[in-house]
Amino acid sequence: MKRIGIIGTSMRAGAFARALASDFTATHGIVGLLDPDEGKARGFCAFNKVDAPLFHDFESFLEGCRPDLVLVATVDVFHAGYIVKLLDRKVGVISEKPLCINAEQARTILAAHRRNPEVFAVTSHNVRYSPVTRQIKRLLDEGAIGKVMRLSYAESLDRMHGTSYFRRWNSRRKNSNGLELHKSCHHFDLLNYLLKTQAAYVSAEGMLVAYGQKAPHKFEGTRCHECPHKDECPGYSDYNHTLFAGSYTPDMCIWSPEIDIEDNYSASIVFRNGVLATYSLCAHANYSGEHIVFEGETGRLEFRSRTFRENMDPRDVHDTMVTPVESLRLYRFGKTGAEEFPVRHENTSHGGADAALFHDLFAPEPPPTLPTLEDGIQAVLTGCAVVESIRTGRRIDVQGQLKEV
Ligand SMILES: NC(=O)c1ccc[n+]([C@@H]2O[C@H](COP(=O)([O-])OP(=O)(O)OC[C@H]3O[C@@H](n4cnc5c(N)ncnc54)[C@H](O)[C@@H]3O)[C@@H](O)[C@H]2O)c1
Predict the structure, then answer these.
(1) What's the pLDDT tens digit per position in 280-328?
(2) Which parts of 154-242 fold into alpha helices (H)?
(3) Which H or E run contains 95?
(4) For the CA of 126, the nearest atom of ligand 1
(5) CATH code of the domain occupying 129-211+259-402
(6) Domain 2-127 falls in which CATH fold?
(7) Predicted confidence (pLDDT) per residue in 56-93, tens digit
(8) Could you tell me if the CB of 73 is within 6 A of ligand 1?
């Protein structure tokens, strides 16, 4: 039996806990939890039906439950500290994305990984595992459009999805360094993976327009559940009270002056293999979705996904109840019209991506194709370059960030 520890009794850790309890009971068991928030951990255990001891500090956790493998699924800024300690204690690590939030943390993780190369350590970049990613990867690898030369990637988060980041710790730069890391690291990893390369240079612009102090709003409070404006405010939201039973509630005011990250940005990325990309994210869109276009030597591959929802069930923390409208089209030069590829979507956690990731992560012999710490670092470096370019107005040498002292 592999002994699994969990750092951060988060919504995300819940997806792992539920999968472990349903699909991997013969080989894996949760032996301990680490979270400073007693109530949050209690809510996690009740919601996910987990029965394991809770610890409040790292040393007691490690000694008390002696894990073989630890899931680091806490607030992003804390990932690096735990990863380094686990590697140096020779304990396997699955880190949630983003692996860390700045280049300095990336350098410390890389150094710890080099000191302990034999320790199993991966980054949970589950988007690689979605059914459509696998279809796109297969088509690109088969040469369906020849060599990719140019791409565009537009990500939109509807107000339900977008506000979810502005109601919580994510919206403070000190915790996440912004959606450029917290959200877009998924997409930056995906591009590196699909193009088999890494980002070289980034130029970006970004701003906060729909949330925070400068947004066109009428109300300001602290937390929705105790706010005097709750009946009139367009930003009011309730939350799952079983899951969030601690001091931390996911209903912080989306108009707060303390919000200091961007909700809109766009970047030009030049990859090491010469591909030029434009990337953008809008966190207050009409619908959630993606529009990704690959222009190749012999054709164009285009993926479009749109998710419309009017009401969201607060239990649907990983989009298991929404079905996007998706299309994947291949346009070949010299031919009119498109070849249409049916997109398989599963109404399970993250459209089937999580089940496929967990299958590999918890296999008796986890395959070497799992996203590595280096992959996680590359996604972080691209995100940091976007943040830095927005801040300074300069073009950023992505790999150069690893060399800074
Ligand atoms: N791969 C994915 O699809 C995916 C999806 C969602 C979230 N995530 C990642 O999972 C992680 C958790 O995100 P979430 O939104 O589920 O979190 P959450 O807000 O539900 O929970 C965060 C938890 O961390 C705990 N915590 C705070 N400080 C801590 C510390 N110093 N040590 C240990 N625990 C501490 C909090 O008490 C809380 O229980 C993040 O890194 C996020 O980026 C990944």
Answers:
(1) 999 999 999 999 999 999 999 999 999 887 666 655 655 666 778 999 9
(2) 159-166, 173-176, 179-182, 184-195
(3) strand 92-96
(4) 1
(5) 3.30.360.10
(6) Rossmann fold (3.40.50)
(7) 999 999 999 999 999 999 999 999 999 999 999 999 99
(8) yes
